[in-house]
Amino acid sequence: MSSPFAAARRRLCLAVLYLALAVTANTAAAGDFSAVEALREGDMRKLAFHSAPREVPDVVVTDANDGEHRLSDWHGQWVLLNFWATWCAPCRHEMPSLDRLEQALGSERFAVVPVATGRNPVPAIERFFAETDLQHLPILRDPTQALSRGMAVLGLPVTVIIAPDGQEIARLTGDAEWDSDSAIAILTALIDGG
Question: How many of the other CB atoms lie within 10 Å of CB of 93?
């Protein structure tokens, strides 16, 4: 049984967290990410916000049926763009957390967009999705590596945050737990602020 003091302390902590998120969201909307950067803990300490937004090439990627898609298809949404490959162990490790993130936050305002770059046959991607029970992510491919080259992706995995205007604002190299409390707090502040 919790004491009245514990309940009051919990309400105070929640109020402080709500206020911090509100302030963070307002500064993120203004393009100042210093408050959002303060939410970085654990794996999210590797997330680097850029001093100025970076252009993103609007290169064609293909889905499992060779349908064509461009990053501009997601304009108006916050996008967590993840470059990965079936043969990349750290990539395979983080994909379930990306799937859980899409399940938790995916909406008309936010999307997780994983792109298998390089040689990743569709059957191998489908087998990996089935083995790891990935149910919320699309299968997208960059077989010629045009998108990854255009975005200076030199290793895998690399995850990029793209603002609704289509510009890259942050990048994380290496794997991460994308459904961690810190990642969700950062992404929620961005979504709510923009």
Answer: 14
